[in-house]
Design a protein that fits this description.
By secondary structure, the protein is an all-alpha fold. Helix 3 packs across helix 5, helix 30 packs antiparallel against helix 31 and helix 36 runs antiparallel to helix 37. Helices cover about 70% and strands about 0% of the residues. Among the domains are: about 150 residues, Serine Threonine Protein Phosphatase 5, Tetratricopeptide repeat (Alpha Horseshoe); about 90 residues, Tetratricopeptide repeat domain (Serine Threonine Protein Phosphatase 5, Tetratricopeptide repeat, Alpha Horseshoe), CATH 1.25.40; about 60 residues. The chain binds one DNA strand through helix 6, helix 8, helix 10, helix 12 and helix 14.
Length: about 625
DNA sequence: TTAGTATGAC
């Protein structure tokens, strides 16, 4: 049997060694003595009472303290009592602590049993330390313990965590061969693994196969599938599964409905989400705060304020209390609308209601201050959150860095970046994008490029935005040649370039006087299957104008009106200025009339040009009236 | 006493 498990673990033999290589006792011990004294100062058998009364609300420190009392008690507590404690700590997701305590038991000569071995295997698997889990399995089997379906399901989870899905599937097959009956937990674990590997259709198919294999899917199974589907946007499929559940006499609960409602919200079917919300209420499923939070934040994102506030009063009326997520969503929405004052009022209100703001709340507010260039207050908020033991994360820092860069204080942005790294926080793509953009805008091309290359060495992968920022920065700082080299590489890479990239390059070429190259790239878009947008046309028109190729520019406007995007104010203004400079009053006034009929007006630089030309007599007053 | 899922906000 052991051999077959060894095969399942990609042919590797078990490594027989102590299942704990590095003791993490150090992470556990500091609270030891304090806890013991605080919680267990009474008789030495007090631990029995604690175990009897249940461990559900115990704190980690106290649980660890309890352990040290237990190992010192004589006679020794039973292994069942130890397993209850380990299980409690495992449920807190403190897997390293469980492993450490397990090792201490070993050292003290307390033998494990099937249950404690299973707990340890589970902990190693949850920490993606599959080889150590397999080592425990080997040891356990050597001692004569047969793995149970629980042991095997834990290992299955280990394979899934490591995305070793084919081995996970093979393990299930092996289990069946060996006479184990996979249960809902086994299948749910595998379904989760399939989603991790983007095999949604196989996951859905597995639900049907389960029944054939004599295992009816339950609410948890459906929950896993519906969640996986909604996260990828397969909402229709998720909805059909809900129907299937009802047919199979499994009543969907509010959590599963929340998943679908949120999926509908995220994938832009807000009204369908609202309909489903009404539907479940009719069915008698009571919505909870999560249901409302999904809908409210989604409505806010769409600017549907009255709908959002209607839902907010609805929830309060139904005595479903808004929580930190509700407030954070509202605060963020106000911040993004530029209504910082409202956001601050909500912040005060949540404090009055004794709802503790968390990192998301603070990040939104900091963003609000940054957006209004109120950097001092942003920093104050930053310090305030730290004073409340809410520690800034990479989003907090990225937000602040962006704020400083936008205010042309890129040095301070860099300093924040260094501070963040010192604290062990790793910048993500957004952080780097912000910094690189800031550096380019400050004209520090070298530092920007250096920061870009740093990304790779820190294992942060650049995205399309990064490249667009890089290309734009190089072009705007007179380094078209370098930009072209990067652009060439990009075109050969797997990355699918979007119109923004092409716009940047066309603009870069035109501004560097290489209008013909820009035109070449513009014409190549059709073959590439990339649709030019209004910016592409306007950039190209502007390029043609800069070479005084006005006929060609006019022709491009015509082409745009025939089969392109609608010209906007920028398109017209660009052409109008070109014709004015060219001294062609007739063409200019014709264009101005056309622009006005589209309800656009002259922009600042057109008005400035007209005013100048008015002063030196090249134009008369009627032009200024016409344009403004 | 042991295994899976776990909905919402930056």
């Amino acid at each position: 049997m052991m051999r077959s498990f060894a095969i399942a673990s990609s042919g590797k033999r078990f490594v027989h060694r102590s299942f704990l290589m590095r003791g993490s006792a150090a992470t556990v011990s500091p609270s030891f003595s304090i806890c013991r004294r605080r919680a267990f100062s009474g008789k030495s058998h007090d631990y029995r009472e604690i175990l009897r009364n249940g461990l559900q609300d115990i704190k980690l420190d106290d649980a660890v303290g309890l352990f040290s009392v237990m190992v010192q008690s004589r006679p020794r507590p039973s292994i069942i009592e130890f397993s209850k404690l380990l299980s409690t700590i495992a449920k807190m997701k403190k897997f390293d602590v469980v492993i450490s305590l397990g090792e201490q038991m070993q050292k003290l000569g307390i033998s494990h049993n099937l249950y404690t071995y299973n707990i340890l295997i589970n902990c190693f698997c949850r920490r993606s330390q599959l080889s150590l889990a397999l080592a425990v399995l080997g040891k356990m089997m050597k001692l004569g313990y047969e793995p149970s379906i629980v042991t095997l399901s834990s290992l299955l989870n280990g394979y899934c965590h490591l995305k070793r899905i084919s081995e996970a599937v093979a393990l299930v097959d092996q289990m069946v061969e060996m006479g184990y009956q996979p249960n809902t937990v086994t299948f749910t674990t595998l379904i989760h693994g399939l989603f991790l590997h983007n095999k949604a259709s196989e996951a859905v198919a597995l639900v049907d196969r389960m029944a054939v294999k004599g295992c009816q899917p339950n609410l948890v199974t459906y929950g896993a599938v519906v969640n996986g589907l909604c996260k990828r946007g397969d909402i229709d499929l998720a909805l059909s599964l809900l129907k299937k559940m009802e047919k199979g006499k499994i009543e969907p609960d509010v959590v599963i409905y929340n998943t679908v409602i949120d999926g509908l919200c995220k994938y832009k079917h807000v009204d369908d989400a609202l309909n489903l919300f009404t539907e479940i209420e009719i069915k008698g499923v009571r919505p909870n705060v999560v249901t409302y939070n999904s809908l409210i934040s989604c409505l806010c994102n769409y600017g549907r304020w009255s709908d959002a506030s209607r839902l907010l009063s609805d929830m309060i009326e139904k005595k479903i209390n808004p929580d930190v997520v509700t407030f954070s969503a509202l605060i963020d929405a106000f911040v993004k609308e530029g209504k910082l004052l409202e956001a601050e009022k909500l912040f005060d209100e949540m404090i009055q209601r004794s709802i503790a703001p968390d990192i998301v709340t603070y990040n939104s507010l900091i963003n609000g201050f940054c957006m209004h260039h109120r950097l001092d207050e942003a920093k104050q908020m930053f310090e305030f959150m730290v004073s409340k033991d809410c520690f800034p994360d990479v989003v907090t820092y990225s937000t602040l860095i962006k704020g400083f860069c936008k205010c042309k204080r890129v040095d301070e942005g860099m300093e924040l970046f260094r501070e963040m790294s010192r604290k062990g926080l790793v910048g993500n793509t957004v952080t780097y994008n912000t910094l690189i953009q800031g550096l380019f805008q400050a004209g520090d091309c070298d530092m920007a490029q250096e920061t870009f290359s740093q990304m790779d060495s820190f294992g942060v992968s650049p995205d399309l935005w990064t490249y667009n920022i890089l290309l734009d920065g190089l072009c705007n700082n007179g380094r078209l040649e370098k930009a072209l080299v990067v652009f060439e590489c990009l075109q050969k890479s797997k990355l699918e370039l979007d119109i923004f990239t092409y716009n940047i390059m066309i603009e870069g070429m035109c501004k560097a006087g290489k209008v013909e190259d820009g035109w070449g790239l513009f014409c190549s878009l059709r073959i590439k299957g990339v649709k030019p947008n209004v910016v592409t046309y306007t950039t190209m028109i502007s390029g043609l104008c800069s070479k005084r190729l006005l006929q060609e520019a006019d022709a491009l406007l015509k082409k745009m009106k025939e089969d392109g995007p609608l010209p906007d104010s920028g398109t017209y203004n660009t052409l109008i200025r070109a014709h004015l400079r060219d001294g062609d009053k007739a063409a200019s006034s014709e264009l101005i009339r056309e622009m006005r009929s589209c309800e656009f007006a002259g922009d600042a630089s057109t008005i400035a040009l007209v005013t100048n030309m008015l002063h030196d007599g090249r134009l008369d007053k009627s032009f200024l009236e016409m344009i403004s």
